[in-house]
Design a protein that fits this description.
Mean pLDDT: 75
CATH topology of one domain: Rossmann fold
Shape: globular
CATH superfamily of one domain: Toll/interleukin-1 receptor homology (TIR) domain
Number of strands: 15
Oligomer: single chain
Order of helices and strands: EHEHHEEEHEEHHHEEEEEEEE
Distance between the termini: 43 Å
Strand order of the largest sheet: 8-9-10-11-12-13-14-15
CATH architecture of one domain: 3-Layer(aba) Sandwich
Strand content: 15-25%
Helix content: 25-40%
């Protein structure tokens, strides 16, 4: 497991209160690995040098952006080359460190032309919006993004490989048992040397054919068993799972869908995917309640990935359709392991 550090970048007069709340929650999840200037820099230390060292040693930087982050009183603080916030973010972007913008209390992401050249790429980083009314949900989204970056998300299928090997070992034993049974049955019809036999086995009942048939049946049983182990695709064996050359089902996104989550996140939304490529969220709850109610959607037929791009451009929804379930479809989240979506046409 990667023991990475997290750096929180913020302005005291713009987001100090939020910074303390976020620091406390992140420190509880990642103890002694969250760096913030008021707690991480010793008295008398060179602030700029300490900031550069801290940013250089972290794997993720959380940039808190409030309404006065860009400028206050008509003065653009980011234009100052010695501005600490500018130094922090520029150092992270230069080192290809994951930067997660967090927009506080209605703040919006500045345009690229509003930022100095060394911060322009910040606008291409997907932001997370925080609100007072839904802080707990928003901080969980941030924690999940950091867990993913730190490599600390434990997918539910981690126990499956060991069980697969166990099942494979059982299968090998059964195959050898079938071979032994086939040899015994074959020898039973052959008398001692010189004895006459009354009938010979037909091609349909030869030991080799029986063994091949049994092995094929066993292979099908093993495949079905592995498919339904805990942590693998859920549902009965009659479900079809997409793969190379799979043509058993097609997913047509156009129409109204009720999308619900299963796993670590609880949410649902009723969305209308229009034929022209636009979407409209008719109802949403839980983690989906913060999504923009309108935007555009796209669907990649190759990997069955559906993406909803909101009008505001702050948070996109992505899901990969993985299998059919009755009249609905299961989908996985390419960002968050452990989250499964169920699509049901309305």
């Amino acid at each position: 497991m990667i023991q990475g550090r997290i750096f929180i970048s913020y302005r005291r007069d713009d987001s100090a209160g939020y910074a303390r709340l976020i620091y406390d929650r992140l420190n509880a999840r990642f103890p002694k690995r969250v760096f913030m200037d008021v707690t991480g820099i010793e008295a008398g230390a060179d602030f700029v040098e300490a900031i550069e060292q801290a940013v250089g040693s972290c794997v993720a930087l959380v940039s808190l952006i409030g309404q006065q982050w860009l400028a206050t009183g008509g003065r653009r603080r980011l234009d100052d080359p010695a501005d600490f916030v500018r130094l922090e973010i520029a150092a992270a972007l230069k080192r290809n460190i994951r930067v997660i913008p967090v927009l506080l209390r209605g703040a919006t992401m500045p345009a690229a032309e509003e930022l100095p050249p060394d911060l322009a790429s910040l606008t291409r980083r997907q932001a997370i919006e925080f609100s007072d009314a839904d802080f707990d949900h928003d901080i969980e989204r941030l924690i999940r993004a950091l867990e993913w970056e730190l490599g600390e998300i434990e997918p539910r299928q981690t126990e499956a490989p060991a069980r697969r090997y166990w099942l494979l070992a059982v299968g090998v034993v059964v195959i050898f048992a079938i071979i032994g049974l086939s040899v015994w049955r074959g020898n039973r019809g052959v008398g001692p040397p010189g004895a006459l036999t009354t009938q010979s086995p037909s091609p349909q009942t030869t030991p080799a054919s029986e063994m091949e048939s049994a092995i094929n049946e066993l292979g099908g049983a093993l495949q079905g068993g592995i498919k339904n182990l805990p942590g693998t695709a859920a549902g009965p064996q009659t479900q079809s799972t997409p793969g190379a050359g799979d043509r058993q089902f097609k997913f047509d996104p156009v129409g109204r869908w009720l999308i619900t989550t299963q796993g670590t996140v609880s949410a649902s939304m009723l969305v209308n995917l229009k034929a022209g490529g636009a979407y409209e969220i008719l109802n949403a709850s839980g983690a989906f309640s913060g999504f923009d109610r309108s935007g555009t959607w796209s669907f990649n037929q190759e990997d069955r990935r559906l993406v909803l791009l909101p009008t505001g451009g702050t948070f996109a929804f992505a899901a990969r359709i993985t299998e059919k379930q009755g009249e609905g479809f299961y989908a996985s989240d390419p960002t968050y392991a452990g989250v499964t979506y169920l699509f049901k046409r309305q």
